[in-house]
Amino acid sequence: MRANYRMQRLYVPDDLAEGQAVEPSPQQTHYLLNVLRLGDGAEILTFNGRDGEWRMTLTSAGKKKIMLTPVEQTRPQPPLPGLLYCFAPLKQGRLDYLVQKAVEMGAGVLQPVITQHTQVTKLGIERLQANAIEAAEQCGILAIPQVCEPMKLERLLADWDAARRLIFCDEDAGTDNPLSTLQAIAEHKLGLLVGPEGGFSDAERKELRALPFVTAIPLGPRILRADTAAVAALAVVQATIGDW
After folding, report:
1. Which segment of 27-41, 62-76, 170-184, 185-199 scores lowest on mean pLDDT?
2. How far is CA 239 from CA 84, 182, 231, in A?
C-alpha cells in the first residue's frame, strides 16, 4: 500500500495501538499547533518504525498540550529492507544529505566505515538517526534503518557474512557499465560500500578485490563527489537488482 502524501506524517517513539493515545513532544506540539496551525479534530499520520502507520486525531489537553488518539491503522509495518549500506563518513552537511538519500532509496542498515582516506572519524550517531527519521517522515517510509556505530574497514571485512555479496564502487574498474556485473549477483543478499572523498587506497582496493564475497562495479567515466557517488550507486543497484 502506497503512502498518503496529502496528510502530515509524524514520527513518535511511543507504542501505537488501538485505544492508546500518544502525547507528542513539546517541539512536535509547537510544530503542529503553531506552524501547521492544526486544531481539535485535525488528523495526522504517525509511525514509530515498529507498529505500522496510524491515522490519529488531535485533541487539546491544555494550553500547550495535545494528545493524539488513534483512529485506524492505515498501513501495516513492513520488514526492514535487506540492503546493508556501508559508507565512509563525510563532512556534516554532505553527510546529512547522504544519510537522507540512503533512507529514501531503501537502505535497511546504515554502517559508517573508517577507511585510510576518511577525513571524518567522529560521528554523532544521534544526528544520523534524526536524519534517517526525518527522511522517513517526508517520504512515507515506515521501516527506519538501523544506524550503527562506525567501524574500521578491516573489521567490517573480517566480520562480513560471506553469504552476502559486498558491492564496492571502484573508480579503477575496467568498464564503465555495471549492469551485467550486478545482474550476475541478483540472487544474493547485498551490501554496498562507497568510499571517502579521496577514494579507497591502493592497499584497500587490492584487499577488497581479493575477497570472494566482493563484487567491484564502476560508476561511469566521470569522477563523482563522494555524496554523488553514494546516490548513483544506490540508484543503479536498486534499479538493477533491488526493490526499485
Report:
1. 170-184
2. 16, 10, 12
Q: For residues 127 and 59, state if they share a domain.
A: no
Predicted pLDDT at 222: 75
| CB neighbours of residue 192 within 10 Å | 25
Q: Helix, strand, coil shares of the chain as percentages rounded to 5?
A: 30, 25, 45
For 15-24, what is the mean pLDDT?
Answer: 94
E strands of 131-240, at which residues?
146-147, 151-152, 164-169, 189-194, 214-217
CA distances from 50 to 16, 116, 202 (A): 8, 37, 42
HEC profile for 68-84?
A: EEEEEEEECCCCCCCEE
Q: Parallel, antiparallel, or unpaired for β 107-114 and 146-147?
A: parallel
Q: Which three cell numbers stand for residue 63?
A: 494550553
Strand 53-60 relative to strand 43-47: parallel, antiparallel, unpaired?
A: antiparallel
Residue 212 has pLDDT above 80, yes or no: yes
pTM: 0.89
* 113 and 161 belong to one structural domain: yes
Give the burial class of 45: count Cβ atoms within 10 A of its Cβ; 0-12 exposed, 13-18 middle, 19 or more buried.
buried
Q: Does one domain contain both 69 and 164? A: no
Identity at 35, one-letter amino acid code: V
Domain that holds residue 49: 9-75
Look at residue 175 in the predicted model and tell me its pLDDT.
66
